[in-house]
Design brief:
- This protein has one domain: Spore Coat Polysaccharide Biosynthesis Protein SpsA, Chain A (Alpha-Beta Complex), CATH 3.90.550.10.
- The protein is of the alpha/beta class.
- It has a seven-stranded mixed β-sheet. A two-stranded antiparallel sheet has the order 2-3. A two-stranded antiparallel sheet has the order 7-13.
- The protein starts with a strand and ends with a helix.
- 27% of the residues lie in helices and 25% in strands.
Length: 227
């Protein structure tokens, strides 16, 4: 299985930190966020990784290089300007191939065991499988519901939702209705929900969306406490 790390975003809410450093290279306990992902993907037996780059992308490419120091092979999918999540993945499909692939946001920290997704076999109807977590304080209502059979459903008013963790298993089929260009992921997720093809699971471990300097500091404090 191949994996893709999404690393092309500008990180507007992290400024001024991201004026000179791409968000995936911001450090947590003196280790760049993206390196946590690479190390754990390698430990899970995933040795082929695609990283999309745009904003200050040369810094990511210089730091990660070909991936050999972690025992993986890294390929890059450059974007002249950020294509957003779906657009970035679609642009990288020639590198990802036709088999299901893991996708993780470069600006999240999660201790989910990647080998679980590497070993997961999509059900016949599934075109993607999301990992979802409890809603953080900044996103109290969540993104979606999850039924008892593991199918993702639209969030109904007043219902308990779950937050997409920025981690999932995807197929090329999931992106078959879109064309090249800038596009967010949410419309494709909603379309897969309508056709009953979006699966998911809940994860109760550690997760943080590193969206602001305050959250980066909170994450640093948490990781230091765990080590």
């Amino acid at each position: 299985m191949k994996a893709m790390i999404l690393a092309a975003g500008v990180g507007e809410r992290m400024r001024p930190l991201t004026d000179h450093t791409p968000k995936p290279l911001l450090r947590v306990s003196d280790t760049p966020l993206i390196e946590y992902h690479i190390r754990r993907l390698a430990s899970a037996g995933i040795s082929e990784i695609v990283i999309n780059v745009a904003h200050l992308g040369e810094q990511i490419m210089d730091y990660c290089s070909d991936g050999s120091r972690w025992g993986v092979t890294i390929m890059y999918s450059p974007e002249e300007s950020p294509l957003e999540t779906a657009g970035g993945i679609f642009n990288a499909l020639p590198l990802l191939g036709n088999m299901p692939f893991l996708v993780v946001n470069g600006d999240v920290w999660i201790d989910y065991p990647f080998e679980r997704l590497a070993q997961y076999r999509l059900r016949l109807e599934e075109v993607a499988h999301l990992v979802m977590v409890e809603n953080p304080p900044q996103h109290t209502f969540g993104d979606f519901q999850l039924d008892d059979e593991g199918w993702v459903r639209s969030l109904e008013p007043g219902a308990h939702g779950w937050t997409y963790a920025g981690l999932g298993l995807y197929t090329a089929t999931f992106f078959s209705a879109m064309s090249e260009g800038k596009m967010p992921l949410r419309p494709l997720l909603d379309a897969a929900i309508r056709t009953g093809q979006l699966g998911g699971e809940k994860y109760a471990g550690q997760w943080q969306d590193v969206g602001t300097p305050d959250r980066l500091q909170e994450l640093n404090d948490m990781v230091k406490a765990l080590t």
